[in-house]
Specification:
- 14% of the residues lie in helices and 54% in strands.
- The chain is mainly β.
- It has an 8-stranded antiparallel beta barrel with strand order 1-2-5-6-7-8-9-10. A two-stranded antiparallel sheet has the order 3-4.
- Strand 8 and strand 9 (156-166) form a beta hairpin.
- The N and C termini lie far apart (55 Å).
Amino acid sequence: VLCSFVATKMRSSFVLFVVLGFFAVLSLSQELSRVEWVLNFHGSSTKTSSGYQLSSSAESEVFQSLIDSQLGVVTTVKHLLGSKAFLTSTINLQAGGQYFEKGNVTFGPSHLYQTHALEFVSITGIFSNTTINSSERQGAAVWRVVGGFGAFENASGFITANYVVDDSNDDFVSNLFGVVYVPPQPTPPAPGFLQRQ
């Protein structure tokens, strides 16, 4: 009886070990992918009763900063052949130059390919009440990624934004730096003509 009890306990321990090992391997396979990107957006701003409506786009590009002995830093942006990204958001101004912002960044929209997007809300943002260079207002914000779709399904992370709005012509320029974590995405099905019937 004692031997039978010990054998039963050993089998239970082995099963538990196998189950725990399976979930450990599964958790490793579910590691989030970190996606980092920098984009320079140009577009327009529309004044509203409570702030601004922003709409802009960015080319596929290389953002390069060169440390210079005389000028400090020299930045160049080189456009590449590829799809565009689009930024749309709404800014609601608050007291003291603070504001709340909500919007999305869409990557590569096309009728030929799937659209990928990140949705965000601001957790902090400040907008200059005074103009620079006679008509430019500078702002900065930190956005929390609250979701997405396409390649960014269930994404999380943060985006920092530094931008300038020109009140004289409603031009809008923004530099975004995103660090986003994305869970493993399911493998897309093969085209119909490659699937087994």
